[in-house]
Amino acid sequence: MKTILATVFLFGVMSVSAQLNPISWSFTSKKLANGNYEIHMTATIDKGWHLYSQTQPEDAIAMPTTFSITNNPLIEVVGKIKEEGKLEKFHDKELELSANQYSKSVNFVQTVKLKGKVKTNFSGSVEFQTCDDKKCLPPKTVNFKVALD
Hints:
By secondary structure, the protein is mostly beta strands. The chain has a single domain, classed as Immunoglobulin-like. Helix content is 12%, strand content 52%. The protein is built from one helix and eleven strands, in the order αβββββββββββ. It has one helix at 2-19; strands spanning 23-31, 36-45, 50-52, 66-69, 75-84, 88-92, 97-102, 105-114, 120-128, 130-131, 140-148. The strands form three sheets. Strands 1-2-8-5 form a four-stranded antiparallel β-sheet, with no helix packed on it. A four-stranded antiparallel β-sheet has the order 6-7-3-10, with no helix packed on it. Strand 6 and strand 7 form a beta hairpin. It is elongated and about 55 Å long.
């Protein structure tokens, strides 16, 4: 009986956890010419949920997505992180709130250049918040590390 209850509890916890993680992340690199790489930080967003752009209007309803890059003396970060996806500009007239958001997926791309012929990693973290039409989840942080060679 205890085994059955433990199994039911475990599946219940896993089900709740799955519902509370509507964003999944993948982190990859694409080698370009002359020691340059594109780092792709891709969010896949569950149906009905939204992930917020790095740039929000003044009357935004949620926290913007932010990236913290770990300093690596072997890497030069080139430019800012670009967003590739279908940006939705949401505005609630009744509440007078707005948001720049994505549904389904968004790809954040950072270009970097290696300072020599070395193998190293591009690492950091992404902090984000996600909401559906009824609620917002607390901000979450995901760490990442991408090999460059």
